[in-house]
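Sample intake sheet
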Amino acid sequence: MMEIYFIFVIFTTLFSFLFARNFIRHGYYNKLLSKNNYSIFYFVGLLTLFPKINFFNLHLTRRFIETIIFRYNKSRMSIFQFLFGISYYFFLSLHLRDKNIKISFYYILLNIIQFCAHYQIFYKKNHKLRYTHYICEFLIYLHIYNMLKTNILKYNLFYLALFIFVTVYDRERMSFRNIFRKKKI
């Protein structure tokens, strides 16, 4: 069941990118829910992991705390993105719940770097580093995959690579359009 979910996520993301981009567009386009609701995703993940404690708790706890510290002003998500986030962290946490993996130095370092990347984006407004957190996220999950080598985590890496590509592509495309519009006026 979980493998089907993660395969479905890959194909749904690709299909949406190619044929229904506004459906998954990330950021300011869907006016329904604030991205400050991301905390619910991580809370669901932590509840799913409970009472087990493993390396993934660290990641989810850090992300949960970040959603309290780093607040979005305008960025929104659709109800589809919200429900996907809940299901994604539920299934991923369910898969990782019974895995007995020790926290490594590399895993802790990547989490610290990602926290610093979020700090740079939210407080320093450093747009030169605006995609660093995605690279860290991918490397964190790559590290988890290298420890466990499960098909679900492999599918998750494919999904993350696709998600990062789609998000960066759309943001850069919109930035380019906005620059062009400003010059035209």
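Comment: The longest strand covers residues 33-34. The helical segments are 2-19, 21-24, 38-49, 55-69, 79-96, 105-122, 132-148, 151-184.
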